[in-house]
Fold this protein.
Amino acid sequence: MKKLRISRIIICAVLAAAMLVMAGCSGTEQTADPGIADGTYVATFKTDNSMFHVCEANQDRGILTVADGKMTIHVSLQSKKIVNLYPGLSEDAKKEGAELLEPTTDRVVYSDGYEDEVYGFDIPVPALDEEFNVALIGTHGNWYDHKVVVSDPVEGDDIQAVINGDPAAGDSSAATDIADGEHTVEVALEGGTGKASVDSPAVIRKNGDEIIAVITWSSPYYDYMIVDGQRYEPVNTEGNSVFEIPVASLDSPIEVVADTTAMSEPHEIEYTLTFDPESIK
């Protein structure tokens, strides 16, 4: 009888231990509660090292995406000298089969107008306002451990709006919540030699979630435009070149390319169009 009782105790202990192990395993698979609603935010990304940080143009900020209980922040770094990141410690990053974070090539614009290409990364964020480990490897092939923290999320997707203290902070719904139909909006052009311009205000047409802007150049020599990789031809045959192009959001500047035939050879020139949503009529 005593042996049977001992056996039962042992069996119960084993079963209890197994249940604890299973509970722990299942817990790691559960989706965590990030504490904020699904959406897109501008958030602060701080590190423990001056050589590993967000580019000065974005002032320690990145785009935080929250979906299904998971958070990821995209940050544009200061150069292309960091070639991979790892969400954890360098000793694990070196192990066979470790999944390294691959870079994207991001174009950033500094306050003086200088443009540059840098590496960006999508980094998983386990929690806000808490330090977590991120390892990096540079062009010399050496791994380094760092601590980072993500904090202060502001709803929206416009980093510069947050930097400049815009209360709308990239909330595209604020500017695009206009009635379907034809409107006008002030628009500014930057880039090139500074000699070209576009008519302002410009006509915009809204149909559901789609916004089309009518861009009229100060020259008849633009023969096509490129927006988000898509080529657009002029909609007129006489007078200054006119294009109808899609606009994803009136709250954020959009990068476009326009080809001019005014020179000895055709040239593609990069421009930035900036709309003023407060001027919509």
In short: Residues 2-29 form the longest helix (28 residues). The chain has two domains: 39-163, 175-279. Residues 19-31, 167-175 have pLDDT under 50 and may be disordered.
